[in-house]
């Protein structure tokens, strides 16, 4: 079954249009499996600030100490995911909210503990269990992983989505964010290859949170994902990433 992996950013979870749900229906009618990985950055930052925790990012990645990790888990699994699942269900879809602990769905390891703290990367997806249990449902997955020693780690949602798309050999990865694509001089770049992206990073046109998004997307392309799209609306062309 062909798979479509969609990453929905924290802001984007609150701004989904009817065209998004119409596209989900089209994909399901075509027999495609939809897997959604959701972020929650703005919500996590707000809750952290309200609790007096310092919000720090390095290289577009949230530095996560033990207290921030607890907030991250609470917000992703207790606030963002239930709301998103309810919204999808309200549009007539069968949906299943999932996390790393569901039959070892997402396994991972630290990225750089001295630099980022409790931040990880996906190393393995339990694809067989996922395929056996969805049965036409839309999967909604939080970007958290569990290590071999049962530690829970926060994962950048773009990086998680790209790796999951790679592991599932997805046909398409859609990074749905709060900008219409990669922007240069006020215009959306319609197509972007790795060489162009590297140049834009050097010129600081691609910076901050867009950097890990772009790097992860090209890694997914290099490992078999056929198409990557960055956009703020499923109807918009956005920026298509290409290997050449």
Portion in beta strands:
25-35%
Shape annotation: globular
The percent range for helix content is: 25-40%
How would you write the strand order of the largest sheet?
Answer: 5-8-2-1-11-15-16-14
Whole-Å distance between the termini?
27 Å
Label the structural class: alpha/beta
Quaternary structure state of the chains depicted: single chain
Biggest sheet details: 8 strands, mixed
Would you tell me the overall average pLDDT? 92
* Total beta strand runs: 16
Low-pLDDT residue spans: none
- SSE string, helix = H, strand = E? EHEHEEHEEHEHEEEHEEEEHHEE
Number of helices: 8
**Rg:** 17 Å
Give the SSE layout.
Elements: E1 3-8, H1 18-29, E2 33-38, H2 41-50, E3 57-58, E4 61-62, H3 66-90, E5 95-98, E6 106-110, H4 113-116, E7 120-125, H5 127-134, E8 138-141, E9 144-146, E10 152-154, H6 157-167, E11 172-176, E12 183-184, E13 187-188, E14 191-193, H7 194-202, H8 210-222, E15 227-231, E16 239-242
Parallel strand pairs: 1-2, 1-11, 2-8, 5-8, 11-15, 14-16
Antiparallel strand pairs: 3-4, 6-7, 9-10, 12-13, 15-16
């Amino acid at each position: 079954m062909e798979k479509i992996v969609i990453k929905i950013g924290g802001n984007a979870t609150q701004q989904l249009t009817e065209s998004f749900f119409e596209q989900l229906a089209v994909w399901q009618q075509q027999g495609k499996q939809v897997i959604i990985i959701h972020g929650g950055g703005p919500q996590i930052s707000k809750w952290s600030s309200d609790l007096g925790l310092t919000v720090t990012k390095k290289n577009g990645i949230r530095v996560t100490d033990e207290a921030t990790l607890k907030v991250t888990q609470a917000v992703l699994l207790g606030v963002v995911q239930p709301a998103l699942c309810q919204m999808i269900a309200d549009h007539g879809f069968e949906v299943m909210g999932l996390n790393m602990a569901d039959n070892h769905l997402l396994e991972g390891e630290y990225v750089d503990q001295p630099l980022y703290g409790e931040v990880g990367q996906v190393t393995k997806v339990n694809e067989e269990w996922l395929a056996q249990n969805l049965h036409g449902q839309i999967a909604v997955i939080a970007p958290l992983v569990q290590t071999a020693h049962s530690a829970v780690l926060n994962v950048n949602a773009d990086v998680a989505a790209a790796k999951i798309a790679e592991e599932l050999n997805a046909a398409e990865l859609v990074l749905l964010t709060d900008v219409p694509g990669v922007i240069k001089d006020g215009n959306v770049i319609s197509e972007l290859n790795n060489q162009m992206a590297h140049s834009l990073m050097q010129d600081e046109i691609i910076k901050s949170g867009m950097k890990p998004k772009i790097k992860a997307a090209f890694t997914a392309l290099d490992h078999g994902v056929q198409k990557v799209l960055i956009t703020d609306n499923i109807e918009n062309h956005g920026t298509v990433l290409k290997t050449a």
